[in-house]
Structures
1.
Amino acid sequence: MHKFDIDLKNISKIEGHTHLEAKVRGGKVQSCKLKITEGKRFFREAVIGKSYKTVGQTMSRICGTCSSAHALGSIEAVEKALGIKVSRQTILLRNLLSNAGHLRDHAMHLYFFCLPDILGFDSVLDFDENNKEQHELIHDALDVKEAGNVLCAIVGGRAVHPPNAVVGGFSKFPKKKDLLKAKEKLEECRDKIIKIIDVFHKRDEKFNRKINYAGLINKDYNFLEGKIKTSEGVIIGEKDYDKHLQEVVLPYSSAEGAKWKGKDFMVGALARINVNKESLHKKTQKDVKEYLKEFPSDNIFHNNLAQAIECLHIIDSSIDMIDKVKDSKKEKPAEPKIEDKDYEGVGVVEAPRGTLYYKIKIDGRGIVTDCDLCIPTQQNIIHMEKGIAKYIESMLDEKSKNEISMGVEKMIRAYDPCMSCATHFLKIDWI
C-alpha cells in the first residue's frame, strides 16, 4: 500500500474534462496533479472589440449553473469602470437573482451528488422509493431546486443565462404576483433545508487541513458586495485583489491555478462561513445555532454543511427582499457618460463555488479592450491537489485501495469543483 500509482481517468460530475494522477512512494504522495483537459473556449476574446453592453450576456454563457454569477460579476466590472451608479431596487433584484442561482446550484450538488455518498448509494436513482426518508429527500431535492429555478426565471427572465440583468439595471421587471409565488415556494422549502442541514452535520467523513480561506464580507451575507477577507485577518478592497492573488501556470493542465500571497488557499461556502458567519440572517443563525458552532472549520467535508446552511440563509434573506421589491417599478437602466479616455473596472462576486473576479478595460468609444477573470475552481485547484495528497496519506495504513478511491471521490465532491450531472464520478486504475 506504500508504493502505487493512482490514475483517475475521465472524471465526471465536473464542468469539463479532468484526470487525476497521484504517485505514492514510501508512504508519501510524491505528486498529485489535477490535469484539466478542457479545451479553451475563448470567452475572454469573445467580448474584446465588442460594446460594453454585450459583456453580461456573453460571459454568462461560460457556465450553465453559474450563469447568473458570471453575468452579475462582469456587469459590475463594467459599471465600476464607467462609474455607473444603480438604484437600490436594482441592488435588491440582483441579490435575489444571485440567491436564486446559489440555491439551485447548492441543491443540485447536495442532494444529487453528495447525498448518495452519505446514504451509501451510487446514485439517487438507487434510493428506495418505499423508504419514507429516502422518498422524502428526493422530493425535497426537487422542490428546493425548483424554488431556485422559479425565482431566477421571475427575476432574471430565464432560469439559465438570465437576460433581464443588464448594465445599469434591468431590462424587464418581475410582477408582484410572480414574486409572491416565488416567496411561497421558498417558505415551503424552509423546513426541508433544515432537515438536509442536519443530515450533512451527521456525516462521518472528516479531514482537517489548516489553510487560508478568502471570501467577501458584508453586513448581510450577500454574494455581490463587500470587501475581501481572509481567515488570516487580511481585509482588502475589491480593486486590490490582484495585489494578493497570483495566477499560476500549471504545465500539465489547460487551466491555470492560483495562490494567495504565494500560498494555496480556498474559496467557496466553507470560506464564506469561516470569515463571515456573523452576518448570516438572524433567523438562520437562531435555527442553526448548534451547527454554526462547527465554524470556523478546517474540515473540508464541512464545505457541504456550509452550503446547506447557506441555503437556509438564502431562503430567509430572499423572503425579506421579496417583501421590499414586490411593488417594484420600471426603471430605465442607468447610462454612463463616456469620454475619450480609457476605463478600467473590477467586479467581485461570490459564485456558488467561491469568489469570482472580473477586470475589464473599456475605451472612449465604449468598446471592451481587455477582459480578465479568475474563477473559483481555478483558485481551489492547488489547494485541492495538496489536500487530496494529504488525505491519501492519512488512509494508507487503514484503508484498502477501494476505500481510498471512494474517499478521494467523496473529497473531490466535497470541494464541488463545478460538477455536472453524470451518474458515476470516476474510474480508478491502480497500477
Note: The two ends are 11 Å apart (CA to CA).
2.
Amino acid sequence: MSNSYAIAAVTATLSKMINDGLNDGDFKDKLPDSLKPTGDIGVTTLTLDKAHDENLDKDRINLFLYQVAFNAAWRNRDMPGQVKSGETGQPPLALNLYYLITAYGEDDKYGSQLLLGRAMQVLHENPILKGNEIEAVLKESELQNQVEKVRITPLPQSLDDISKLWTTLQTQYRVSAAYQVEVVLIESKSPIKAPLPVLTLRPIDKDKGMLSDKGILSQADLIPPFPELTDLVLIKEADNIWTEITKKYSAELGDILSLRGHHLKDATVKEVRFSNPHLKDPISMDPESVTDSEIKVKISDEPHRWVAGIYTLEVVMSRAGEPDQTTNELPIALAPQIETNLPIDVVLSSGNTVITLDCSPQVLPEQRAVLLLGDNEIPAEAHPDKVNQLKFNVKSANPGEYFVRLRIDGVDSLLVKDFLAVPLEFDSERMVKISK
C-alpha cells in the first residue's frame, strides 16, 4: 500500500515518462533542422505563472498538478486483504490527481505544438503507470505495490472550464491538455480493530423469535430447497459417452443442451420453454432425460418454429393438485446457419456485386440481418416477409477470399466446424471468393 509520498511519485513518474519520450532519438531525429531543439528537451513541474517566465524561450513541457480530489468509489471502502468481515479500520485516503500539460518552444510557431503532440502520444501509449516505472523513480512511496492500478485518462475541457482555470491561475493562456490520474490509495496509519472470532452462536427459538436454550438451529447446506437452474452447456454423444462442448459459444438447431441445477426431480418436469422477443408464444420442448441435477433437452431441427437470436430458457414443473411452476431463466444464443453450399465465387461488376445466401432458421422482417464479409459489415436487403434467403449488395469490394458470417440480431453463424478439435480452426470452406 502506498504512503504519503504517492502524490510526488505519480508526478515524478509522469515527468520521467514524458522526458524519455521527448528525448527519444526517433522523435528528435525526424524533426526538420529548423525545428530541432538546440539541446535536451526538459520537463518542469512548476505552477503556470512560474513556468511561463522560466520556459518562455526554451523547449520545455510543464506538468502542473492543479487539483487533488477524493475518489468517491474508494473513499469509504475497506482495503481488500487487510480488513476482514467483522473488523473495523480506517479506509485509505483515495485520491484523483488532475494535471495540466503545457508546451513551450523556442520556435513558437510550431515548436510547442510538436512537443505537446509528443507528450500526449506518450501518455496515450502508456495509460497505466507500471510498477517498475514507479519503483525506479520513487521506490519509497510503495505506490508500485498498491492493489489498484494507477490509470491515466484524458480529461475533456469545455471553453468555460479552460477560461475559469487560466483566469484563476492569472497567467497568459497557452494550448494545453488536461489529464486525470486515478486512483492513489494512501494507507491509513490508524490500527485495525480485529476482535477475536466467535466460537459459539447465540441460540434463537425459530417459532418465538427469541433466545432459547434449545441449541443452534441450522440446515445442512446453503442450497435453496426448491428447483433451480445454475448452468447450461452444450453436449454431444459419441459411443455412449457424453462430452461437453464448452468452447461452442452459441447453439444451433439440432444441438443437445445439458441444464444443470438441483432439486430438479422434486416435481414432474413438464416441458422446457424457450422465449424470444420476436416470437408471440414460447417454444416448448420435451426433455430427453431428467435427473435431480441435470435435464437434457434437444433443440428441434425445425427451422419454421425458430428464429435466430437470444432466448431465455426455463423449465416448467408440475405437482399434483398445484398450479404449474417455472424455474429461474438462463440465456442462450441460437446461431443462424448458412445453408448455401460454400465456398462460392462471385464476380465484380463496376466494383460491386450481390451475394445471395440461403439461411436457417427463417429471418423475420423486423430482425436485423447483416453479412460479415471478412471484417466488413453489409446489411441485408429489406424483405417484407419471413424468408430463408437473404441478398446483400456489396459495394466497392476488393477482389480476394473472405470468411463469411451471417449475423442475425447480434448472433453470428459459426465459423468453426469442430469445437472439440485442438487447436480450434476456422472452416476453410466457409468463404466467398470475389474476382473481377
Note: The radius of gyration is 32 Å.
3.
Amino acid sequence: MTPRPVITLLTDFGSRDPYVGMMKGVIAGICPEANVIDVTHEVPPQDVRVGAFFLERAARYFPPGTVHVAVVDPGVGTTRAPIALEAAGQFFVGPDNGLLCLAAARYRAVRLEDRRFFLPRVSTTFHGRDVFAPVAARIAQGEELKQFGPSLRRIVKIPWPRPRRGKRAIAGEIVAIDRFGNLITNLEPADWRSLGRPRLSAGAFSATKLCATYASVPKGQLAFVVGGYGLIEIAAREASAEAKLGLRVGDPVRLRGA
C-alpha cells in the first residue's frame, strides 16, 4: 500500500479568516490524497524569525518526503523570491525571506517561476494560496524540483542566536515564549551535561537541578525542564514563568559550571 503524501502548513494567518481553508482547498483540488497537517497558524504576525524556529523544531518529527508549506510573508508581491527546496529528505515551499533557513542547513533550492504550476490568477497579496499551495501539491505528487524554475545557489539567511561558550560557562538567551508562559531558551540538554555541577540562571531565578517534569516542584514554583522543543526552558508549575520573572525574548540565560 502506497503511503499518502504528507503536506504541512505553518503560517501567521490565525484561524479567524478563511485563508488557511483556501490553501487547503487548492491542495485538495490538485492532490486530494494528501494528508494535510496543520503545524501552527499562530506565528506572531510577520515574525519570520519565530516562524523559522517553529518550522525547524517541527520538521524533525515528520517522515521523509514530507512537503512543508511555510507562509510568514511580509514581503509578498515584492522582489523577494518564491522558492522550493529539498533538505534532509524533506521539501519546503515558501518565501525566500529567511523563513526556511533554520530547517535547511544543507539544501537544493529552486526559484518558483513556471506559472503552469500556479493558480491561473496569481494575486500580489496571497502567494500562499496562489503559488505555494499548488506547488506543494505538485511536489507531493512527485514533480521534480527542477520543473518549477531555475536553481538557486543561496537562500536568504536570518541571524539566529547560538549559545556562546566560555571556559566554564555557556551564555544563552530566551528565544520563544509559549502559551503557558514557559520561557524557551536556546540551550540544549547537552549544554547542561557538558558542565560539572552546573547552575542555570535567568533573571532572578537560578537552580542547580534540571527537573524531569513540570510537577517536580510545588504548585507555583519555578523550575528548569527540557520542554517540548527539546530545549531547556524555565517553567512555573500551573503558572506562568513569564509573568513571575518578567523576562522577554532576547533576555540572557547563563549556565555556569562549579
Note: Residues 147 and 251 are 45 Å apart (CA to CA).
4.
Amino acid sequence: MGNVLDDLAVYIYAQSTVWTIGNKLVKGRLPDTPDTCVALIEVLGFEPPINVFSASNVYHWERPQVQIISRAGRDDYQTARTNAETIYKMLRNVYQTTSGINGTKYHWIAIRSSPHYQGEDDNSRHHITFTVDCWKNKSS
C-alpha cells in the first residue's frame, strides 16, 4: 500500500523523468547527499479529516500536508529556486486524479505557500520550500 509521499513521488516522476525517486527525489527526510535534490516530508497539518456526503454514500477524506524542500549544491541558489518552481507548477493544478500506486483518489492538491527561501544548511546549500495539502480519499 502506498502513502501520500509515495503517491506524490510517482506523480512528480511521471510528469518529468528528471526526478529519479530515491536519488534526486527523496521521501521522508533530507539526506546528506546528493547536494541537489528535492525532499518530500510529511508535516503536521492543521486540518482534520472530514466526511463528505453524497446522495448514496459517505466519503472519508484525509488532508495530509507535505513540505517540499528543494536543495542545490554549495552556493547554488538558482538551481534550488528553479527546481522548487518546477515542482510547484506540477502540483498547483492537480484535481481529481488517482494515484498509480494504490488507486487512491486525490480530489485536490492545495498549495499552502509559494516557494520561499528557508536559508542555508551547514554546507552553504540553499533551501527553497513550499507546502501542500492533499485532499484525498482515506487510504485503505
Note: The CA atoms of residues 18 and 24 lie 8 Å apart.
